[in-house]
């Protein structure tokens, strides 16, 4: 592996114009594809294998011509204080708006008058009413004229003192991440400047990461319509791709500067940097890809697409790091090193020329990493207990985790959808915003009328039910639908119990009469989604951790080091989940992070955090511990190897973690609750894993284990493939057996980067 990557690094350095041209051409092609691709017209959400999905599919089959993908909206009216919405002047105003909406766009499928006697939509106290609007196309296909017509509906009514708010997905737009995303990239740039002391060295990782992300996100945009990619797919890919792209470039550039400091020529330094640090990048990227691609086992299309798209962006980041980075290093020349270091080297070279001495690499010297590692090794038990107990305390809120999917009730209170949601809840009851759709398959029923009467009668007796609408059969008479309005909030445990009660009733009816009863609708889909996430979490965790454990065994030639890495990850991800619960569910410090309405944690959050954070956590494990392993196999004691690993890696890993935290934290400014929560969760998880687990718990455990940390049974050592991650075979090839001792000495020399 190291020898192969060494050759790639030297080739890219020599043919830098060709390599750069190829990547720029790929970026241009992807950009043109994104610009010319048709807009994604669907943001479909399906959960194969669940009852809610089976009911949804049955509706599409038995009610042809009724599109379930069309956008919808509710225009909600509340009469002025002391008045009724049914008062003649108010009712006339609302009816006028109904006509206005009907004539406002040819994309409208129907507009329901709230005063229609067949289906009234007026609250019992007569103060609130709503107009239901459905469209022939999805929200992404609505024209600006159609959106404007909906937005302007009720302007005259507002001027007359009536409250008018609009909810539903018809006004859905792509989520905004806000200026904090840009701030995240700016922070990354500042950290790189501080780390390298050179604007060229700092700018190189940013430029290459943006090129990789640009190609990845443009490709996703170009394929969005064809592959039905959701709006959050590109956002997650950008989030992950930008973070790992900067980090991977950072590690290779840092190693390149170290090789230069040891006196090597620029092309040779580029080859060795890619051969050594590049090997770690490849394996680190592979762990991230395994974690993201592993989301396919959950068997939920939206998660599968998000995972594969993000994994593809990570692959691009790895390819950019091992090819475009050495090419850009060739363009950068001596400017990749800070002016201060260039002057120091020039002075040393002049002195060596004057005295006839041979110029060698910089002498080893202590830095913050070595001092910290020695502190940890002096007090490993204290550091270990402090880290484990601290993260354990932060993880406590995770025991109270409640999961669900956000609706308009999770929107900021200043938005019209949230105001419409609250008006409907106040006027019609908390469960009105989460109606359940009952679907009855009557094909095998002997007495259809009796069955429908029994179903609605039994459901109405349930303590959690507010209203059951009369069943509406289809034209064929083999299917009927009805609506159940719960008494409680859509995401409450009482509503979840109601869904299961109706399904239990359906099981009884099927055994007695042959009729099948299904429950679907957004609320039922959310409940099924949460349950499926719960069921999939442990198998997914076992698969991802198991595969990564085998991969890390190959990298580190050890059993205990990968085991420690996996256990440390579990500790950090549970602590991060506890922090997410405290902020987004309990509301602690919610105002600081823009959480206006605490509520259940997104069902997708735990499994997504496991997938993403595990891959990123292994990045730091690979980059930090491979330098320890490299030092150990070249003759250093376990204690010296830990110090060497921190001497070379602590500063770079710290910078990488700060950059990744800044990039993820930038998405906290999003207007979309899902993206905000993902950004916060990933940022805090990286903080815990990098600074508590990898920088404190890992050296403490390695200090306690000593040589046992690197133990591997001989039979297993022979069975595992040797990818030469430490570059030992590469070093022998380049320096020869006679120079091996000197090479090992050089590896242990400290370089200021």
Automatic annotation (TrEMBL):
Localization in the cell: Cell membrane
Pfam families from the UniProt entry: MMPL
Region ranges (Disordered): 734-753
Gene Ontology cellular component terms for the protein in this record: plasma membrane
Residues in coiled coil: none
Chain ranges of the SSD domain: 199-331
Composition bias type Basic and acidic residues, residue spans: 743-753
GO molecular function: transmembrane transporter activity
PROSITE patterns: SSD (PS50156)
Keyword Hydrolase: no
Keywords assigned: Cell membrane, Membrane, Transmembrane, Transmembrane helix
Membrane topology: Multi-pass membrane protein
Transmembrane intervals: 182-202, 209-227, 233-253, 274-302, 308-333, 381-399, 537-556, 568-589, 601-620, 652-671, 677-705
Protein family: Belongs to the resistance-nodulation-cell division (RND) (TC 2.A.6) family. MmpL subfamily.
Protein name: MMPL family transporter
């Amino acid at each position: 592996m190291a020898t192969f990557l060494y050759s790639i690094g030297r080739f890219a350095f020599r043919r830098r114009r060709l390599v750069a041209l190829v990547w720029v051409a790929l970026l241009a092609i992807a950009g043109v594809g994104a610009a010319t691709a048709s807009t994604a017209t669907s943001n479909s959400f399906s959960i194969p294998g669940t009852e809610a999905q089976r009911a949804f599919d049955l509706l599409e089959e038995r009610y042809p011509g009724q599109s379930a993908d069309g956008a919808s909206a509710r225009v909600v009216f509340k009469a002025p204080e002391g008045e009724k919405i049914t008062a003649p002047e108010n009712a006339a105003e609302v009816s006028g708006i109904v006509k206005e909406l009907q004539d406002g766009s040819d994309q409208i499928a129907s507009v329901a008058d709230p005063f229609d006697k067949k289906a009234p939509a007026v609250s019992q106290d007569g103060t609130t009413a709503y107009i239901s609007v459905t469209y022939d196309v999805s929200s992404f296909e609505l024209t600006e004229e159609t959106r404007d017509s909906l937005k302007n509906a009720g302007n005259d009514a507002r001027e007359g003192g009536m409250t008018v708010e609009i909810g539903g997905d018809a006004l859905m737009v792509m989520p905004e991440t806000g200026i904090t995303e840009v701030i995240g990239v700016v922070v990354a740039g500042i950290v790189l400047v501080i780390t390298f002391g050179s604007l060229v060295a700092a700018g190189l990782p940013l430029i290459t990461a943006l090129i990789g992300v640009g190609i990845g996100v443009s490709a996703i945009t170009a394929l969005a319509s064809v592959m039905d990619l959701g709006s959050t797919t590109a956002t997650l890919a950008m989030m992950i791709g930008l973070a790992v792209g900067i980090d991977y470039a950072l590690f290779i550039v840092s190693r390149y500067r170290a090789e230069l400091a040891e006196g090597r020529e620029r092309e040779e330094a580029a080859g060795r940097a890619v051969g050594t640090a590049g090997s770690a990048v490849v394996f680190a990227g592979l762990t991230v890809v395994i974690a993201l691609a592993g989301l396919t086992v959950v068997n939920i299309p939206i998660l599968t697409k998000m995972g594969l798209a993000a994994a593809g962006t990570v692959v691009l980041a790895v390819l950019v790091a091992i090819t475009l980075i050495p090419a850009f290093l060739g363009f950068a020349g001596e400017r990749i090193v800070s002016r201060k270091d260039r002057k120091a080297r020039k002075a040393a070279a002049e002195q060596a020329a004057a005295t006839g001495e041979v110029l060698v690499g910089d002498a080893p010297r202590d830095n913050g990493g070595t001092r910290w590692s020695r502190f940890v090794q002096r007090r490993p038990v204290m550091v270990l207990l402090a880290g484990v107990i601290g993260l354990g305390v932060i993880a406590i809120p995770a025991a109270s985790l409640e999961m669900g999917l956000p609706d308009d009730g999770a929107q900021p209170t200043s938005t019209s959808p949230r105001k419409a949601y609250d008006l409907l809840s106040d006027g019609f009851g908390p469960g009105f915003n989460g109606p359940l759709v009952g679907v009855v398959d009557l094909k095998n029923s002997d007495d259809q009328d009796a069955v429908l009467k029994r179903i609605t009668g039994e459901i109405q007796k349930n303590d959690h039910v507010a209203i059951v609408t009369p069943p509406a059969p289809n034209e064929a008479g083999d299917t009927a639908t009805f609506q159940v309005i719960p008494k409680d909030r859509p995401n409450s445990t009482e509503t979840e119990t109601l869904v299961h009660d109706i399904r239990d009733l359906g099981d009884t009816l099927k055994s007695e009469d042959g009729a099948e009863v299904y429950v679907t609708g957004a609320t039922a889909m959310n409940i099924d989604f949460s349950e499926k996430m719960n069921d999939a979490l442990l198998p997914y965790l076992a698969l991802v951790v198991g595969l990564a454990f085998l991969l890390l065994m190959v990298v580190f030639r050890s059993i205990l080091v990968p085991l420690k890495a996996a256990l440390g990850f579990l500790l950090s991800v549970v602590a991060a989940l506890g922090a997410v619960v405290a902020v987004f569910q309990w509301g602690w410090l919610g105002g600081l992070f823009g959480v206006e309405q605490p509520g259940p944690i997104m069902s997708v959050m735990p499994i997504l955090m496991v997938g993403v954070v595990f891959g990123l956590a292994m990045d730091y494990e690979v980059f930090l511990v491979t330098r320890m392993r490299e030092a150990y196999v070249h003759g250093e004691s376990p204690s010296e190897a830990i110090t060497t690993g921190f001497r070379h890696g602590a500063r770079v890993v710290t910078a990488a973690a700060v950059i990744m935290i800044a990039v993820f934290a930038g998405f906290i400014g999003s207007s979309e609750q899902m993206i905000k929560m993902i950004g916060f969760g990933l940022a805090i998880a990286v903080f815990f894993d990098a600074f508590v687990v990898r920088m404190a718990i890992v050296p403490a455990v390695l200090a306690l284990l000593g040589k046992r940390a690197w133990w591997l049974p001989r039979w297993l050592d022979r069975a595992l493939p040797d990818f030469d991650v430490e570059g030992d075979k590469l070093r022998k090839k380049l320096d020869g057996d006679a120079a091996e001792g000197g090479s090992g000495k050089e590896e242990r020399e400290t370089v200021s980067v």
